[in-house]
Amino acid sequence: MMTAAEFSEIRAFLAVADERNFRRAATRLKISPSALSRTIRTLEERLGVRLLTRTTRSVALTEAGQSLQTQIQPLIAGMDEAVRQVGAFQESAKGTVRINLPRVAATVAIMPKLAGFLSAYPDVRLDLVIDNDMTDVVAQGFDAGIRAGHRIGQDMVAIRLTPDFRMAVVGTPSYFNEHTPPASPHELAGHRTLTYKWEKSGTAFPWSFEGPQGRVSVAVEDVLTLNDTDLLLSAALRGIGIAFLAETVVRPYLAIGDLVRVLEEWCEPVPGFHLYYPNRANMPAALRAFVDYMKLSGR
Predict the structure, then answer these.
(1) Are 172 and 236 spatial neighbours (Cβ–Cβ below 8 Å)?
(2) End-to-end Cα spacing for the chain
(3) In principle, which of 78, 192, 275, 297 could form an S-S bond with 241, CB 3.0–4.6 Å?
(4) Can you count the helices (H) and strands (E) in the chain?
(5) Is residue 200 within a helix (H) or strand (E), and if so which, with residue range?
(6) Model pTM?
(7) Buried b (16+ CB within 10 A) or exposed e, 8-34
(8) Buried/exposed code over 43-70 (b: 16+ C-beta within 10 A; e: otherwise)
(9) b/e per residue, 122-160, with b = 16+ CB within 10 A?
(10) According to its UniProt record, which protein family does this protein belong to (predicted)?
């Protein structure tokens, strides 16, 4: 593999070969003519062949020098172009942004803004991966993630996307016609509960509430656990039992009477959804564009 010094020697040789003049080549490389001359001499000694013929007025390529220029120059030009193209990713917003987020966050925080962002940045492609688990976005190769604020690590940069929201205990009117609505979380023990369960950890979402004496967590006897909030909502709408879901998910069904809410005064606010990403010096321009757009559109 070529060392940095050897690469610099090749760059110096190509500059002289292009300019056919040591002084102009030295100016182009921002070094002194004497330093350039020493660099060329070192290259010739390393290769064991003369590359240039020098006179008082001009510089000419030897046959070996001509051969080296012909073979090396396209390779160096290709490298320069590759570096330029990579730099363009930083200068302009282009490329793919991979984001890990739960379904409800996609629905309430991203989808309403998606068309505007993609129209503003036509060279950016979004790869949204719906995942309700507590995925390590850095380890899994994501650029960013979206979660409720209290579930984000302290080592991450976080930007609020939505206001705080509450959880909601809901069931159908027919369900509550057959089962007395609970007046406190402790009365959930006698109900058919539908609970979200994280797929990777196998942990059930806790039924936690805030009362006059502080936090209350109750053990429920689930008739159904699911790792999909849409299916959990569907089960609740079919009258199978009562579910504990984000109010943003159930609000439309409460408005039309398909679901009834109970224990509302016991449900504490949950920090809204936040876009989060690792703190780094050189953020890709596409990710920066997404972050800035979401930040501005949320105001």
Answers:
(1) yes
(2) 52
(3) 192
(4) 10, 15
(5) none
(6) 0.62
(7) bbbebbbbbbebebbeebbeebebeee
(8) bbeeeeeebbeeeeeebebeeebeebbe
(9) eebebebeebbeebebeeeebbbbbbbbeebeeebebeb
(10) Belongs to the LysR transcriptional regulatory family.
Rounded to 10 degrees, what is the CA torsion of 151, 152, 154, 158?
Answer: -140
1 vs 216: CA distance, rounded Å? 65
**CB–CB of 157/287 below 8 Å?**
no
Range list of H helices, the chain: 4-19, 22-29, 33-47, 63-91, 103-105, 111-120, 173-178, 229-237, 247-255, 285-297
Query: How many CB atoms are located within 10 Å of the residue 176 CB?
Result: 18
Single-letter amino acid, residue 158? A
State both tokens at 47.
């290769």
Which residues neighbour 247 within 8 Å (Cβ) at sequence distance 6 or greater? 165, 166, 167, 168, 267
Which among 267, 262, 199 is positioned nearest to 236, based on CA atoms?
A: 262
Closest C-alpha to 89, from 277, 288, 294: 288
Is 239 in contact with 109 (CB distance < 8 Å)?
no
Residues making up the chain, counted from first to last: 299
Specify whether the CB–CB gap between 194 and 243 falls below 8 A.
yes
Tokens 């220029």, residue located: 69
Mean pLDDT for all residues in the chain: 87
Neighbouring-strand partners of residue 151: none
Taken in order of first residue, the domains within the chain and their CATH numbers are: 4-91 (1.10.10.10), 96-145+278-297 (3.40.190.10), 165-270 (3.40.190.290)
